Predict the 3D structure of the following.
Amino acid sequence: MEIEFHDREKEIEEIKRILKAPPNLITFVYGPINSGKTALFQHLIKTLPGDYRVFYISLRHIYVSRADDFLKVLFDVKNKRASIKTLAKEVVETYVPEEVLTPLGRIPIPKNIFRELFRERRVENVFVYLETLLGEVAKRKRPVLVLDELQKIGDVKINGPLIYELFNFFVGLTKESHLAHVFAITSDSLFIEKIFNEAMLHGRCRYLLVDDFDYNTTVEFLRKYGFNEDEIELTWNYFGGKPVYLVEAVNNKHRLKDFCEEQLKLRTVELKQALKKLKELGEYVLINDKKYEIDYDKVISALSLFKDKDSLLLDSLDEVTKHYLIKSNVLFLDPTNEIIKPQSRLDLLAIRKLLQES
């Protein structure tokens, strides 16, 4: 069954409010895994009025280990020579919002300029080109730059981490020149925590949480697909408002109880196997380029805190255990609200089931 985009009116209104004002701050969009961040922007881009020009760069399925990898996904290389002014005019006139997630969404660049940037391998030249192009586009449209899963370039270095070069560039586009709106989307809550504590970004960015649906929104969504009260309560009790599971619940409505139990069993087994591997083989996490061994007993103690709680205060876990459980996609950290919670209602149930069985 084809599932329509649902609600998100609060988030959409907030983004539109940001877009109506001159660019001033970088907007970091974050939330648990599969909470609908990308779907939100896909929907929003298609509904924006014609005076906006969106460049959407998705790093979701790209392995980025070098600056070259980032440049290849950043640019849409044109097989012709053209001035930036001519290219900008073409970009504005040929923009199709419905195709923004195709190469049309990337930054256009003539092949000769692209080759020159690659040959010199100077990231500052890339930023000069981008700023010049966006400046030309801004004469006709309102440029909007969206980078999805920005944390993928967090470890790339060019005379230092590339991510800091990007941050400086984004600050220049927003707070300094007010040239373009910048949205950075991520599901990596450790990345958001690092940004939240980054001194260079204080007063230069804002945070927008895109969380799972609340109860009322979940009820409204499920009723649209013919769920009765018992089916709604069953679905909520297993999955909460996690959009990806709600869609699957709709598609498995004819066997809903079995589907719910299967998903809980699967997630519990996944957690059990991960803990078995930790106990028998050991694991480590990298924090500030230093290795830290994971203590199995501390992990179990941390999970035990969720026996009767849905969330914890940010300082409830030691840093090493916290990093491990978040990197393992078991927990989600929300630095702006100072809490840690399971990535989903299903994860919470799986944690509790695992603790009962052990």
The CA atoms of residues 67 and 158 lie 7 Å apart.
